[in-house]
Write a structure and sequence with these properties.
Oligomer: heterotrimer
Helix content of chain A: 40-55%
Distance between the termini of chain A: 37 Å
CATH architecture of the largest domain in chain B: Orthogonal Bundle
Largest sheet of chain A: 7 strands, mixed
Shape of chain A: globular
Shape of chain B: flat
Number of domains of chain A: 2
Number of strands of chain A: 16
Radius of gyration of chain B: 26 Å
CATH topology of the largest domain in chain B: MetI-like fold
CATH superfamily of the largest domain in chain A: Periplasmic binding protein-like II
Number of domains of chain B: 2
Order of helices and strands of chain B: HHHHHHHHHHHHHH
Number of helices of chain B: 14
Number of helices of chain A: 19
Structural class of chain B: mainly alpha
CATH topology of the largest domain in chain A: D-Maltodextrin-Binding Protein, domain 2
Number of strands of chain B: 0
Chains: A alpha/beta, B mainly alpha, C mainly alpha
Structural class of chain A: alpha/beta
Helix content of chain B: 55-70%
CATH architecture of the largest domain in chain A: 3-Layer(aba) Sandwich
CATH class of the largest domain in chain A: Alpha Beta
Amino acid sequence: MRTTLLKAGLLAGVGLFAANAAQAVEIEYWQYVFDARVKAMDQLIENFEAANPGVTVKHVTFPYADYQTRVVAAHAAGRGPDVVQLFYGWTDNFVDGGILQPLSQEAFPHAQIEEDFFPIVTAMKREGEYWGLPTAVRSLALFYNKDLFEEAGLDPESPPTTLDEWVAAAEATTKRDGAGNMISAGTTLDMAGQDHHWWREVLVRQFGGEPYTDDYRTVTYDSEAGRAALEWYTDLQLEKGVGAAGFMDEGQAAFRAGLAAMTIDGTFRLGAFRSIESFEWGVAELPAGPDGTRSNYSSYFANGIGASAEGEELEAAEKFLAYITSEEAMEVWLETVGELPARREVALTEANLADPIYGPFLRGLEYAHTTLFVDEAAQRQLIIDATNRILLQGQSPEAALEQAARDEQALIDARN
Amino acid sequence: MARISARTSEPGVVTTAPLPSPTSPEAPPRGWHRLSMSQKQVVWAWGFLALPILFYAGIRFYPTLDAFWLSLTDWNLLRPARFVGLENYARLVSDPQFWQVFNNTFAYLLIGTPTSIVIAFVIAYYLDRVRFMHGLIRALYFLPFLTTAAAMAWVWRWFYQPPPIGAINGFLATFGIPAQPFLRSTEQALPAIMVTAIWAGLGFQIIIFMAGLRAIPGTYYEAARIDGLGELAILRKITLPLLKPTTVFLVVLSSIGFLRIFDQVYNMTTNDPGGPLGSTKPLVLMIYQSAFSSYEMGYAAAQTVVLFSILLVVSLLQLWILRERT
Amino acid sequence: MIAPAESLDAPAGRRPLRPGRIVAWTLLFIGGVVMVTPLLFMFSTSLKTAGQVYDLRLIPASPTLANYVEVLSDGRFLRWFLNSTLVAVAVTLSNLFFDSLVGYTLAKFRFRGRMIVFIAILSTLMIPTEMLVIPWYLMASQLGWLDTYWGIMFPGMMTAFGTFLMKQFFEGVPDDFLEAARIDGLNEFQIWWKVAMPLVTPALSALAIFTFLGNWTAFFWPLISVTSRELYTLPVGLSSFAVEQSIQWEMIMTGAALATIPTLLVFIALQRYIVRGVMLAGLKG
C-alpha cells in the first residue's frame, strides 16, 4: 500500500523531479524478527547505504512463526521483496513457487562460491543454479550451566565429551523436591527445539545408523540404530529421569532460568544466553557417540533475490546481496548475532577456533550434516509426535519410529 | 423515552447526514414529485438498502459460493486453481488427523456447552437473590468476558505449567496433590483449554440468565407460593420453562463459540500447534494450518465447508429440539 | 420492560434464601474471586523481576514497573493499541450507521422484496467467518487490501446480528412519531436520523458495546490479513510478542496486562451501561 502510494507519488512528480526520482532506487529486504539479526542487518544497511548513495534499503521484518507464509502470501498478492532471507530448507518451496530468481553467474560465479563458502552452501543449488547465499551458518553445541555443575560436584571446566559422561552429568545435576517433582533438570528435552536435529543427524549416526540416503529422498532411520537412538532419548525422561519434555514450557527457557544444567542448542541462541546474569555458562562440542563418532547438524538462512526485481532494482539487489555476504558483513554478523561466518576464511581463523564459545561450534561445523528438508515444520512434527507417543502413550519406540518413517517417506514422496 | 424524544425535536441537534442518498431532495431525480407517497417510500427504501445489499452480496454471499468452489480445486498460493472435483473431500475422509480434529471439535462442543450453561445458570440463580455487594460479585464474574482471549491464553498457559513454575500445580502441591501434566497430557490438554473458554464466556451467560430471570413477572412466583409450591417445584415448573428462550439463545451462541474455538488453542500450544499428538486441535486450527502454513487453500476450503455444515446442523438441531419440548 | 440491571434489590416476589443465605453468598464470593484470579496473577507477575517469577506469592516481594517501561519503551504496544482502537471504533461506527439504517428500513418501510432482503441478511448468521476467510484473503490480495487497515475492517463493516437487533428495536418505535415528522416536511433520511435513531439509543449502545468488544479482541482475521508489525492489532501483536519473548513469563504477563487494562478501565467507568447493554442485546437478539 505504502509503496504503491510512494510509486504513485513518484510518478506524479516525474515531470519536475525526473532526475531525482531516477537516481533514488529503493529495494526491500525481508527477514524475520530476531532482535540481534535485526540490529545486525540495520547496521549492514547503514554501511551499504553509505557506500552506495542513491540506493536505499527498506528493512521489513515478520515474526518467525509465520514468516514463510508471509513471503508466500505477499508473492501471491503480486508483491515481494527484492532481497529475501530464507531458510535453506524452504528453497524447494520458494523456487517452485517462483518467489526467487537464480543468482546471475556474472555477479556470483559458481567456482568462486564453491571455493570461498563452506560446502553446505550447495544446498542452495537447484537446476544448476544458485538461488541464494548465506551470511552465516549455524551448528549445534552443548550449553552447560557452570554453577549447577559446581554445585553437583562436577568440574565446571571439563564438560562431558561422550554420551556416557553426558548422562552421568545430567544425573548428577538433576534436582527433585520431596514430592518427586523435578525442580531443576539435568538436561532439557525439547524435540520442538533443536533436539529433533540432534536425534536425526547426530544420535542416529552415533548409534550406527543413517537417517536418510545421501540424497535425502529415502528415510532410513527406521533401523536398529534409529530405534536405539530414540529409545535412548526417551529413556532420559522415562528411565533416568534427568529431564522432562515440557519442563518450563521450552528447553531454552529452562536453561536461561538456571533450571536446567545442560541444553543442546544452536549458535543463534548465543545472543539470548549472553543476557544471562545469574549464572556462568559454557559451551562444549556435542558429546561423541559410544564408538567415538562425532556428528553435528548445520543449517543456515540464505539470502535470495526476489523474482520481481528487475532493471535498476535488480542491480541494486545484487550489490546488496554481494555486500551482505561479504567478509565485512560476516564479521559484523558474528559480532552482533554470534552466528558463524559462511566463508571458510572468515570463520576458521585461529582466534575463532580458540574462542571458548565459537570454537566448539566451528569444530562441529567440520563434521556437520545438513538435512535436505522438503518441509521442515512437517518433518519436525513427525519426530515430535513419535516422541510424544512414547512419552505420553507408552507406545514402543519400534512402533513409534515405524510410523514416523512411513509418514515422513510419504511426505517426501508427495513433493517429488 | 419521553425525555429523549423531546430533546430530539429541538432543531439542529443532529445536523449531519453523512450519506447523500441518490434520492435526497437536494438533487431530486426527474419526476420525483410525480411519485405517490408510497412509491417514494419504495425508492427511499431501496436507496437505503443499496450499499448494504452490495456489501452482503460481495462480502458474504459471493465469498460463500467462492468457498464452495475453492473446495473443489487444488488451489495453493503458489499455483493457480485447478478443478479437482471432490478430491479434497475424499482426502478429508481418509485423513486420520481430520477425524481426530473432528472428535476434538465435538468434545469442545458437547462438554463445553452444557458445562458452561449449567454453571452459569446456577450462579445466576443464586446471584439474582444476593443483595449484599451484588454489583461487586457480578463484576467479578463478568470481568473475564472483557478480556482478550489471545492475551489470557498466555496467562493460562503459564498457570498450567508443571512445577516449579505452574501456579495451579503450586496450589495443588500445598494440598499434597501430585503435579498434573495439564497441557503436556493427551487426556488433560483439551479439558484444560476448554476451562479457559468456559471461564471467558461465563460472565456473559450469567448476565443474560439474570436478565432472563428478571423478565419473569413476580406475580407468577406469588401465585405459585399461594398454591403451596416449594422452591424446587417453582424452579422446575416456572423458572426453567419461562427461561427457555434465554437458554436456547445461550446454547446456540455457546455452541457456535465452542465449534469455532481457535484463539486459545493457537496461543496455548505455539510450540506444538494443536497440543501433544494433536489432542487439542480444533477444526479451525486445522483450517488455519492447511491454508496458511501449508498453503493448501483448496483443502482448507473443503474443511471450512465441513465446519459450515456442522454449524448449520447443530444450530437447526438445537432450535428444533428445544422448540419441540415447549 | 426489563428491570434495570443495576438495581440491587431482588425483584418482588422472590424471597432471598434465608437459611442458606450466608453460605450461598460466601460460595458466590469465593467463585467470583476464583474468576478474577488469573487476572490478579497476571498483574502480580507483571510487577515481578525475572528472578521472582518462580515465587508464586500474589503480592510481589518488591514490585517494580520495570517490565512495563521495557515493554512500552519501543512504542510498539502503543502503536498496536492505537491500531486496535482505530479499527474497533471505525467498524463500530459503521455498524451503528448501517445496521440501524437497514434495520430501520426493514422495520418501517413496506415494499416488495422486504422479507427476501431480511431473510437473506439473516441467513448470513449461519455462515461462519472461518468459511469466508479464504475467499476474503483471495479477494483482499487481488484488490491490494492485505496489510491495510481497510483490509482488517472490511469484513465486519455490517453485521446481520446488528441489523436484526436494530430491526427489533425499531419495530417498537410508534409509527405516529415518524408520520408527524413526515408532515413536518422531513425527508426519510432525516426522519430516521433525527427522529427514530434517538429513540433507540439503548439499543445503539448495546450494539456499540458488542461490536467494539468483538473487534477489539478479534484475532483470527487480523492474524491472517496483516503482515506488517506496524499494522498489528493488540491481540495479534501480543501473540507475536509473546512468541518472541521465548517464554519470559514476566514480560508476557506485562504484555497481556497491557492488552487487558484498557477494557477493564472502560468497564469500571461504564459498568452499568455495559451490563445493561449486554442484557438488552441478549434479550432481544
